[in-house]
Write a structure and sequence with these properties.
Length: 292
């Protein structure tokens, strides 16, 4: 399913470390690895000559060549087909354009890049790609202590699938189950009743019952999809602040991967996905696979 994997990089050690996850999936699916560096040109100052423009962006272009070559070398060392490119433009738009042109099946990105302002730039770029991408995005969180290297990629043995019963959640589940089947991973489907939307202490029992039923139906649907693939599955319905509850559940399950949709729906539990997905992507210590 994932035969072409794109790894955008900003040249930092942390961003390039996402290659571990790309390589793991690349070897599993025999995928081609594409590396892309975007020289953020923005608005070129008025009146600047072409020669001056080249000089202005030359250091970034050189860094981009070096960064993409390193990733390509690693991919080829793992006997994978590889391609690389350096482009100019607005990072998230250029990444999405490249993915569309090359028929990319998955984008693997870090949620942090360099320190300070540059790290914020890559982080915001990742969030924009997550929100707008037509293909799944695997977000790998970087550490904040100066060591930007995430845990090594894979294998994925325990996968958590948050759901609210929406179409986006179902697509996320399908992508997660594709990976789970490859790794014979256990599946953990979870639904969170959003207590920021409902004051459950004062809510009528009928409302609480409907919320629980909705959660049970949503998680059991994922479990049935897993069962059809011969996978072990468990379900859970929890109450609380969605992002907090999901991250606690991920920790308790000792999960290797979270897979969730980027667009939820405000039914029963409130908008579980969407803004919750952004919070989970920012805070999750393990990779998050998102689907629109």
């Amino acid at each position: 399913m994932f035969t072409t994997i794109l790894v955008p990089t900003d040249g930092s050690a942390g961003a390039e470390a996402t290659i571990d996850h790309a390589l793991e999936l690349g070897q599993t699916y025999e995928a081609t690895i594409h590396s892309l560096y975007v020289v953020e040109t923005g608005e070129t100052p008025a009146g600047i000559a072409d020669d001056d423009r080249e000089e202005l962006y030359a250091p970034s272009e050189r860094q981009g060549r070096e960064a993409t070559i390193r990733i390509t070398d690693q991919a080829e060392a793992h006997d994978l087909m590889a391609a690389r490119e350096v482009r100019e433009g607005v990072p998230h738009r250029t990444i999405l354009e490249y993915a569309d042109e090359q028929g990319v099946d998955m984008i693997v990105m870090g949620t942090h890049g360099r320190t300070g302002v540059d790290r914020a730039r890559l982080g915001s770029t990742t969030e924009r790609v997550v929100a707008l991408s037509d293909v799944p995005v695997l977000s790998v969180r970087m550490t904040d202590d100066g060591d930007d290297t995430p845990e090594a990629g894979g294998p994925y043995e325990r996968i958590v699938i948050p759901t609210d019963g929406s179409d986006a959640a179902e697509r996320a589940a399908e992508n997660a189950l594709e990976i789970a089947e490859k790794y014979d991973a256990s599946v953990h489907a979870v639904y969170v009743i959003d207590t920021t939307t409902y004051d459950l202490e004062d809510a009528p029992r009928s409302i609480i019952g409907l919320l629980k039923t909705g959660g049970q139906n949503a998680t059991e649907a994922v479990a049935e999809m897993a069962d059809e693939r011969g996978l072990e599955a468990t379900t859970a319905v929890r109450r609380g602040v969605p992002a907090d509850e999901l991250l606690e559940y991920v920790s308790a399950a000792d999960a290797d991967l979270v897979a969730m949709g980027t667009r939820g729906r405000a039914v029963g539990s409130g908008r579980l996905l969407g803004s919750t997905t952004a919070r989970v992507v920012r805070r999750s210590p393990i990779p998050v696979l998102t689907s629109n």
